Amino acid sequence: MNLKELTIKEAHKLLEEKEITSVELTKAHFDGIKKHDGNIHAFLSLTEKEALESAKKVDQRISKGEPIEMLAGIPAAIKDNILIRGAKTTAASKILENYIAPYDATVIKKLKEEEAVFIGKTNMDEFAMGGSTENSAFGPTKNPVDTNRVPGGSSGGSAAAIKAGFSVYALGSDTGGSIRQPAGFCGVVGFKPSYGAVSRHGLMAMASSLDQIGPITKNVDDAAAVFEIIRGADILDSTSADREWQSYHDKPVDIEEIKFGVPREYFTHGLAPEIEKNIKAVISKLEKEGAQIEEISLPYSEWALAAYYIIMPAEVSANLARFDGIKYGYSKMSNLKDTYLESRGEGFGAEARRRIMLGTYVLSAGYYDAYYTRAQKVRRLIKQDFVHAFKEVDAIITPTSPTTAFKFGEKTQDPLSMYLADIYTVSINLAGVPAISIPIKEVNGLPVGLQLIGNNFEDIKLLKIAKIVEDMSK
Which residue among 152, 181, 211, 332 is least crowded, i.e. fewest CB within 10 A of its CB? Predict the structure, then answer.
C-alpha cells in the first residue's frame, strides 16, 4: 500500500479500521518530502514536530474506540499566505521572511477542530501575484509532471505538493485563477468557492474583493470534504455569507437533468487546438450520456482581463501599504522617507512592485474615474453576464487555461503574456461565482484542466456536477 496515494476518504477509512495510524501516514508524507522536495521545492517550511504530535493525539483517540472526523489525522499542506499560529508565514516575500503568525486563520481554526495534521507551508508567487510560482522570493516550484515546466500559480506549491504525493490535500487562495490554473497545470482538482462562502480572516490580503480560499485535492470528493469544513459565516470577516448549506451527500444530481452552457467567447483565438479538442470530447461524451448542451454568450468576458488588471492592482496597492518597514517585517531603518523607500524597494520583488505602481496610478487624481471607476462598471456587466447565463444553464464548461504548463522563463520577460494565461479564470473572481478545475485527457504528456463554473452560492451543486464530469473523463 502506497500511503502517499491515498485520498481523504481512503485514508479516513483505513484510520477508522486501524489498518494504518496517523503517525504512519504523516511520516510517509514527510519521508517523501525529504527525498524529493529538494528538486520540486513545493514547501517553504515544514512543521514536522507539531504534525507528529497532532497525529499521535488522533491515534490515541482511535485506540480508545472514539469516533473521528473525516479530516482527523490526515496531512494537509497550507499555502504560505494563510496564517497558522506560531508558524512562519512569509507569503513568499523577503519583506516577511521571518514573520511568525500570531493567530490562526479561521479556516485553520476549523481544520484544527477537525484534528487535521498540518505538515508545512507551501511555496507561492509573492503575495499571490503571479501565474507560475516563479515570483517567489525563495525560488520557484517545479511541476512534478515535468520539472522543466512551471506548476502554475500563485498556489503552485500547493498543487505541486498534491501531485507529488507530499500531502493528502492542500489549501490555496484564488484571486484570479490561483487555485484553478495550477491545479490544471499539475493535473489535480482545484476548487474556488463563491466569494463569501469561506472566511478570509487570516489570509494575507492581496485584492480583498477577489481573494478566496479553497482546496486543492486528488479528486472532487476530497474537494467537497474540505469545503464542507472550511465554509460558513465568520464574525471576523464581514464579507462572509451567513446562509444555509446543503450537504454534498444529499440527493445526487442526475446527468439527464443537467444543462451545460458552452460560451462561444471561450473557444476562439488563443486556445491551443489540442486543449480545445479534449474539452469538446468531454462535452460530446456528456451529451451522449444525456446531458443537455447549449451554446451561450458571455459578451463582456472580452473585457474581463482588462478590468481585472485595473481592479486587482488598485486593491494590491492599498493592501500592501501596511508593509512600510516600520510596523513589522523587513526594515531598512533610516530617515522616514528612506525607510519607506528602501524597505519596500528591497523587500518587495519585481512583480509586487509592478502591481503596486499600477494600482497607485489608476487610483491617483485624474485617473480614478478614467480607469478604476470604468473597470468597476465593466465588472458589474460581467457579473450580469453570469446572472443571465444561469437562468438558462446549470453549469458552464470552459478550459482552465489556454495552454498546458509552460517552461520556466518562457513568459517572465513579457508580463502581458503571463497575464493572458488568466484569460479563462479572472471573470469568475470578478463575478464572485464558484468554479472548479478537474483534470482530463493529457496533451503530449502534460495535464489539461477543464473548468466548470457554477451559479453564486450553488457550490455544492457545482461539486456534484463536477463529480459526474470527473467520472466521465476517466
Answer: 332
Cell 473572481 found at: 429
- DSSP label at 104? -
For residue 309 the three cell numbers come to 488588471
Q: CA 275, CA 252: separation in Å to the nearest integer?
A: 29
Q: Please tell me the distance from the alpha carbon of residue 65 to that of residue 217, in angstroms, as a whole number.
A: 29
In b/e form, how buried is each residue of 26-54, taking b as 16+ CB within 10 angstroms?
Answer: bbbbbebbeeebeebbbbbebbeebbbeb
- The pLDDT score that the predictor gives to residue 290 is 96
Which residue range is the domain that position 36 belongs to?
A: 1-474
> Which pTM value belongs to this model?
0.96
DSSP code at position 73: T
From the list 373, 194, 392, the residue with the least C-alpha distance to 297 is 392
The per-residue pLDDT for 12 is 98
Indicate which residue of 22, 93, 173, 178 is catalytic.
178
CA-closest candidate to residue 179, choices 202, 162, 164, 196: 162
Q: At residue 332, does pLDDT exceed 80?
A: no
How far is C-alpha 169 from the geometric centre of its chain's CA atoms? 12
Beta-strand runs (E) in 23-146: 43-46, 75-79, 117-122
Do the strands 212-217 and 189-192 form a parallel or antiparallel pair, or are they unpaired? antiparallel
* pLDDT band per the 50, 70, 90 thresholds, residue 340: confident
Total domains in the fold of the chain: 1
Residue 293's domain is classified under what CATH number?
A: 3.90.1300.10
Active-site annotation holds for 155: no
For 249, residues 6+ apart whose C-beta sits below 8 A from its C-beta are: none
Catalytic residue among 154, 158, 194, 301: 154
Cα distance between the two ends of the chain: 22
Torsion angle defined by CA atoms of residues 277, 280, 286 and 288, in that order, rounded to the nearest 10 degrees: -80
In the residue annotation, 427 being an active-site residue is answered as no
Peptide bond between residue 154 and the one before it cis (omega within 30 degrees of 0): yes
pLDDT of 418 reads: 79
Q: Indicate if 154 belongs to the active site.
A: yes
d(CA 191, CA 462): 10
Report the DSSP pairing between strands 117-122 and 446-453: unpaired
Nearest C-alpha neighbor of 117 from the set 152, 166, 164, 63: 166
Q: Which of 22, 54, 79, 218 is catalytic?
A: 79
